[in-house]
Amino acid sequence: MDLDEYQKQACDTDKTNRHRIMALLGLAGEVGSIFTLFKKRQRNAKFRVKVDDRERLIEELGDSLWYLSTVAHQEDISLSEIAETNLEKVKILFGDFDPTEMPDLELTNLSEERFPRSFVIEFRIEDPGPNEKTLMYLGDEALGDPLRSNVYDDDDYKFHDVFHLANVAFLGWSPVLRKLMSRKRVSRADYDEVEDGGRAQVVEEAVVALMFEEAEGLDSFKNPQVIPFSLLKTIRRMVRHFQVSQCSMMQWRLTMYHGMQVFQKLQENNGGFVRVDMNKPALDFSSDGKAFAEDRT
Fold first, then answer.
1. Of 94, 128, 153, which residue constitutes the final position of a domain?
2. CB 31 within 8 A of CB 64
3. What phi and psi values does residue 148 have, to the nearest 5 degrees?
4. pTM of whole model > 0.85?
5. How many CA atoms within 13 Å lie on the side-chain side of 39?
6. For residue 296, what pLDDT band results from cuts at 50, 70 and 90?
7. How far is it, in rounded angstroms, from Cα 171 to Cα 164?
8. Where in the sequence is the domain holding 202, given as residue range(s)?
9. Do residues 129 and 85 both lie within one domain?
10. For position 46, which CATH number holds?
Protein backbone atom coordinates (compact mmCIF):
# COMPACT_ATOMS: atom_id res chain seq x y z
CA MET A 1 0.00 0.00 0.00
CA ASP A 2 1.21 3.51 -0.82
CA LEU A 3 2.36 5.41 2.28
CA ASP A 4 0.60 8.65 1.41
CA GLU A 5 -2.64 6.84 0.57
CA TYR A 6 -2.45 5.10 3.94
CA GLN A 7 -1.90 8.45 5.64
CA LYS A 8 -4.91 9.97 3.88
CA GLN A 9 -7.22 7.13 4.86
CA ALA A 10 -5.83 6.98 8.41
CA CYS A 11 -6.36 10.71 8.95
CA ASP A 12 -9.97 10.38 7.78
CA THR A 13 -10.52 8.35 10.97
CA ASP A 14 -8.79 10.87 13.26
CA LYS A 15 -10.98 11.62 16.29
CA THR A 16 -8.34 13.50 18.28
CA ASN A 17 -9.92 16.79 17.18
CA ARG A 18 -6.54 17.77 15.71
CA HIS A 19 -5.07 18.14 19.21
CA ARG A 20 -1.36 17.49 18.82
CA ILE A 21 -0.90 16.45 22.43
CA MET A 22 -3.51 13.70 22.06
CA ALA A 23 -1.76 12.24 19.03
CA LEU A 24 1.65 12.51 20.70
CA LEU A 25 0.40 10.83 23.89
CA GLY A 26 -1.18 8.10 21.79
CA LEU A 27 2.10 7.51 19.94
CA ALA A 28 4.02 7.32 23.22
CA GLY A 29 1.46 4.88 24.61
CA GLU A 30 1.63 2.57 21.60
CA VAL A 31 5.43 2.52 21.66
CA GLY A 32 5.15 1.60 25.32
CA SER A 33 2.85 -1.27 24.38
CA ILE A 34 5.51 -2.59 21.99
CA PHE A 35 8.05 -2.48 24.83
CA THR A 36 5.61 -4.41 27.03
CA LEU A 37 5.16 -7.07 24.36
CA PHE A 38 8.91 -7.61 24.07
CA LYS A 39 9.23 -7.66 27.85
CA LYS A 40 6.75 -10.55 27.91
CA ARG A 41 8.78 -12.28 25.22
CA GLN A 42 11.83 -12.12 27.47
CA ARG A 43 9.83 -13.49 30.41
CA ASN A 44 8.35 -16.32 28.37
CA ALA A 45 11.76 -17.23 26.97
CA LYS A 46 13.10 -17.51 30.51
CA PHE A 47 10.44 -20.13 31.32
CA ARG A 48 10.67 -21.74 27.86
CA VAL A 49 7.08 -20.77 27.04
CA LYS A 50 6.38 -20.37 23.34
CA VAL A 51 3.76 -17.76 22.48
CA ASP A 52 2.74 -16.70 18.97
CA ASP A 53 2.37 -12.94 19.31
CA ARG A 54 2.92 -11.97 15.67
CA GLU A 55 -0.66 -10.70 15.22
CA ARG A 56 -0.38 -8.70 18.44
CA LEU A 57 2.87 -7.13 17.24
CA ILE A 58 1.30 -6.22 13.88
CA GLU A 59 -1.55 -4.57 15.74
CA GLU A 60 0.73 -2.56 18.03
CA LEU A 61 3.00 -1.48 15.19
CA GLY A 62 -0.06 -0.54 13.17
CA ASP A 63 -1.44 1.61 15.99
CA SER A 64 1.98 3.31 16.28
CA LEU A 65 1.95 3.96 12.54
CA TRP A 66 -1.53 5.48 12.80
CA TYR A 67 -0.49 7.92 15.50
CA LEU A 68 2.76 8.72 13.67
CA SER A 69 0.74 9.40 10.54
CA THR A 70 -1.57 11.70 12.49
CA VAL A 71 1.27 13.67 14.08
CA ALA A 72 2.93 14.07 10.67
CA HIS A 73 -0.35 15.16 9.05
CA GLN A 74 -0.91 17.78 11.74
CA GLU A 75 2.52 19.18 10.89
CA ASP A 76 1.78 19.03 7.14
CA ILE A 77 4.41 16.34 6.56
CA SER A 78 3.75 13.31 4.38
CA LEU A 79 4.81 9.80 5.33
CA SER A 80 6.57 9.46 1.97
CA GLU A 81 8.70 12.53 2.74
CA ILE A 82 9.60 11.05 6.12
CA ALA A 83 10.50 7.71 4.53
CA GLU A 84 12.61 9.26 1.75
CA THR A 85 14.50 11.54 4.16
CA ASN A 86 15.18 8.67 6.55
CA LEU A 87 16.43 6.40 3.75
CA GLU A 88 18.80 9.12 2.56
CA LYS A 89 20.14 9.47 6.10
CA VAL A 90 20.71 5.75 6.74
CA LYS A 91 22.31 5.26 3.32
CA ILE A 92 24.73 8.07 4.12
CA LEU A 93 25.53 6.63 7.54
CA PHE A 94 25.56 2.92 6.76
CA GLY A 95 25.48 2.47 2.97
CA ASP A 96 28.26 1.81 0.45
CA PHE A 97 30.02 4.56 -1.50
CA ASP A 98 30.19 4.44 -5.29
CA PRO A 99 33.13 6.61 -6.47
CA THR A 100 31.67 6.73 -9.98
CA GLU A 101 28.91 8.96 -8.61
CA MET A 102 31.35 11.72 -7.56
CA PRO A 103 30.49 15.01 -9.28
CA ASP A 104 33.26 16.63 -11.33
CA LEU A 105 34.02 19.95 -9.63
CA GLU A 106 36.97 20.96 -11.82
CA LEU A 107 34.69 23.10 -14.02
CA THR A 108 37.53 23.54 -16.52
CA ASN A 109 39.31 21.56 -19.23
CA LEU A 110 42.59 23.47 -18.87
CA SER A 111 45.15 21.04 -17.44
CA GLU A 112 47.04 23.82 -15.65
CA GLU A 113 43.87 24.73 -13.73
CA ARG A 114 42.96 21.15 -12.74
CA PHE A 115 44.26 19.16 -9.80
CA PRO A 116 46.58 16.31 -10.81
CA ARG A 117 44.61 13.08 -10.50
CA SER A 118 47.38 11.70 -8.30
CA PHE A 119 50.14 13.55 -6.48
CA VAL A 120 52.33 13.26 -3.38
CA ILE A 121 52.86 15.89 -0.69
CA GLU A 122 55.66 15.73 1.87
CA PHE A 123 55.06 17.12 5.36
CA ARG A 124 58.52 18.16 6.49
CA ILE A 125 59.53 19.41 9.95
CA GLU A 126 61.33 22.76 9.90
CA ASP A 127 63.48 23.91 12.86
CA PRO A 128 63.04 20.74 14.99
CA GLY A 129 62.56 21.46 18.66
CA PRO A 130 60.12 23.39 20.85
CA ASN A 131 59.36 25.89 18.06
CA GLU A 132 59.23 23.40 15.21
CA LYS A 133 56.99 24.01 12.24
CA THR A 134 55.73 21.91 9.35
CA LEU A 135 55.95 22.80 5.70
CA MET A 136 54.37 21.03 2.74
CA TYR A 137 56.43 20.19 -0.33
CA LEU A 138 55.24 19.16 -3.77
CA GLY A 139 58.43 17.71 -5.14
CA ASP A 140 61.04 20.37 -4.39
CA GLU A 141 58.48 23.19 -4.29
CA ALA A 142 57.38 24.50 -0.90
CA LEU A 143 53.64 25.13 -0.63
CA GLY A 144 52.55 27.97 1.61
CA ASP A 145 54.21 29.02 4.85
CA PRO A 146 55.59 26.93 7.71
CA LEU A 147 52.84 26.15 10.23
CA ARG A 148 52.72 25.77 14.00
CA SER A 149 49.74 24.54 16.02
CA ASN A 150 49.17 27.99 17.57
CA VAL A 151 47.73 26.71 20.86
CA TYR A 152 49.20 26.47 24.38
CA ASP A 153 49.02 22.67 24.49
CA ASP A 154 50.34 21.42 21.16
CA ASP A 155 47.71 19.22 19.45
CA ASP A 156 49.71 18.90 16.20
CA TYR A 157 47.28 21.08 14.27
CA LYS A 158 50.40 22.01 12.31
CA PHE A 159 49.58 18.91 10.23
CA HIS A 160 46.01 20.05 9.53
CA ASP A 161 46.71 20.61 5.83
CA VAL A 162 46.22 16.87 5.43
CA PHE A 163 42.48 17.56 5.69
CA HIS A 164 42.73 19.84 2.65
CA LEU A 165 44.37 16.92 0.85
CA ALA A 166 41.49 14.68 1.94
CA ASN A 167 39.08 17.26 0.53
CA VAL A 168 40.81 16.95 -2.84
CA ALA A 169 40.90 13.15 -2.75
CA PHE A 170 37.26 12.51 -1.82
CA LEU A 171 35.51 15.71 -2.91
CA GLY A 172 37.67 17.11 -5.71
CA TRP A 173 37.53 20.40 -3.81
CA SER A 174 39.96 22.63 -1.97
CA PRO A 175 40.16 26.36 -2.70
CA VAL A 176 43.06 26.53 -0.23
CA LEU A 177 45.16 24.00 -2.14
CA ARG A 178 44.17 25.50 -5.48
CA LYS A 179 45.82 28.71 -4.36
CA LEU A 180 48.89 26.99 -2.90
CA MET A 181 49.36 24.80 -5.98
CA SER A 182 48.64 27.68 -8.42
CA ARG A 183 45.61 25.83 -9.80
CA LYS A 184 43.08 28.65 -9.49
CA ARG A 185 40.69 28.82 -12.44
CA VAL A 186 41.70 32.27 -13.60
CA SER A 187 40.32 31.59 -17.09
CA ARG A 188 36.84 32.02 -15.61
CA ALA A 189 36.46 35.20 -13.58
CA ASP A 190 33.36 33.91 -11.76
CA TYR A 191 35.01 30.65 -10.67
CA ASP A 192 38.20 32.50 -9.72
CA GLU A 193 36.28 34.95 -7.55
CA VAL A 194 33.65 32.65 -6.02
CA GLU A 195 34.78 29.01 -6.07
CA ASP A 196 38.49 29.74 -5.55
CA GLY A 197 38.27 33.12 -3.84
CA GLY A 198 38.93 34.35 -0.33
CA ARG A 199 35.53 33.52 1.09
CA ALA A 200 35.68 29.94 -0.18
CA GLN A 201 39.14 29.55 1.38
CA VAL A 202 37.91 30.88 4.74
CA VAL A 203 34.93 28.50 4.65
CA GLU A 204 37.19 25.54 3.93
CA GLU A 205 39.49 26.44 6.82
CA ALA A 206 36.44 26.71 9.08
CA VAL A 207 35.19 23.31 7.92
CA VAL A 208 38.60 21.75 8.60
CA ALA A 209 38.76 23.33 12.08
CA LEU A 210 35.28 22.01 12.84
CA MET A 211 36.19 18.51 11.64
CA PHE A 212 39.29 18.55 13.84
CA GLU A 213 37.45 19.67 16.97
CA GLU A 214 34.65 17.13 16.50
CA ALA A 215 37.14 14.31 15.93
CA GLU A 216 38.90 15.14 19.19
CA GLY A 217 35.70 14.45 21.10
CA LEU A 218 34.77 11.32 19.12
CA ASP A 219 37.85 9.15 19.52
CA SER A 220 39.48 10.61 16.39
CA PHE A 221 36.82 9.14 14.09
CA LYS A 222 38.39 5.69 14.46
CA ASN A 223 35.09 4.30 13.23
CA PRO A 224 33.35 6.29 10.49
CA GLN A 225 29.99 5.30 11.97
CA VAL A 226 30.58 7.63 14.93
CA ILE A 227 30.68 10.74 12.71
CA PRO A 228 27.37 12.39 13.65
CA PHE A 229 24.75 13.17 11.04
CA SER A 230 24.36 16.61 12.64
CA LEU A 231 28.01 17.42 11.81
CA LEU A 232 27.51 16.40 8.19
CA LYS A 233 24.43 18.62 7.94
CA THR A 234 26.27 21.56 9.48
CA ILE A 235 29.09 21.25 6.96
CA ARG A 236 26.62 21.00 4.08
CA ARG A 237 25.08 24.29 5.26
CA MET A 238 28.50 25.93 5.51
CA VAL A 239 29.37 25.11 1.88
CA ARG A 240 25.91 25.68 0.40
CA HIS A 241 27.08 28.63 -1.72
CA PHE A 242 29.72 26.60 -3.57
CA GLN A 243 29.84 23.78 -6.11
CA VAL A 244 31.04 21.35 -3.43
CA SER A 245 27.48 21.40 -2.09
CA GLN A 246 26.80 18.81 -4.84
CA CYS A 247 28.92 16.27 -2.96
CA SER A 248 27.09 13.67 -0.93
CA MET A 249 27.27 13.37 2.83
CA MET A 250 28.90 9.99 2.28
CA GLN A 251 31.79 11.74 0.52
CA TRP A 252 32.14 14.14 3.45
CA ARG A 253 32.08 11.25 5.88
CA LEU A 254 34.89 9.45 4.02
CA THR A 255 36.83 12.71 3.80
CA MET A 256 36.74 13.18 7.56
CA TYR A 257 37.47 9.54 8.39
CA HIS A 258 40.46 9.08 6.06
CA GLY A 259 41.78 12.57 6.75
CA MET A 260 41.93 11.84 10.48
CA GLN A 261 43.56 8.41 9.97
CA VAL A 262 46.38 9.95 7.92
CA PHE A 263 46.65 12.90 10.33
CA GLN A 264 47.38 10.45 13.15
CA LYS A 265 50.09 8.76 11.09
CA LEU A 266 51.71 12.14 10.49
CA GLN A 267 51.58 12.71 14.25
CA GLU A 268 53.15 9.34 15.04
CA ASN A 269 55.95 9.79 12.49
CA ASN A 270 56.39 13.54 12.98
CA GLY A 271 55.84 14.11 9.28
CA GLY A 272 55.91 11.95 6.19
CA PHE A 273 54.46 11.62 2.71
CA VAL A 274 50.80 11.67 1.72
CA ARG A 275 49.49 10.54 -1.64
CA VAL A 276 46.25 11.92 -3.02
CA ASP A 277 44.54 9.62 -5.52
CA MET A 278 41.36 11.08 -6.97
CA ASN A 279 40.79 8.05 -9.18
CA LYS A 280 40.09 5.47 -6.46
CA PRO A 281 39.60 7.78 -4.42
CA ALA A 282 42.19 7.33 -1.65
CA LEU A 283 44.48 9.11 0.78
CA ASP A 284 47.61 7.10 1.67
CA PHE A 285 50.57 7.61 4.00
CA SER A 286 54.24 6.60 3.77
CA SER A 287 56.89 7.47 6.31
CA ASP A 288 59.70 7.68 3.73
CA GLY A 289 57.83 8.12 0.44
CA LYS A 290 59.45 5.10 -1.23
CA ALA A 291 56.05 3.50 -1.89
CA PHE A 292 55.04 6.65 -3.79
CA ALA A 293 58.19 7.03 -5.87
CA GLU A 294 56.38 6.85 -9.20
CA ASP A 295 53.87 9.52 -8.14
CA ARG A 296 56.31 12.07 -6.79
CA THR A 297 56.90 15.10 -8.97
1. 94
2. yes
3. -115, 170
4. no
5. 6
6. low
7. 10
8. 99-295
9. no
10. 1.10.287
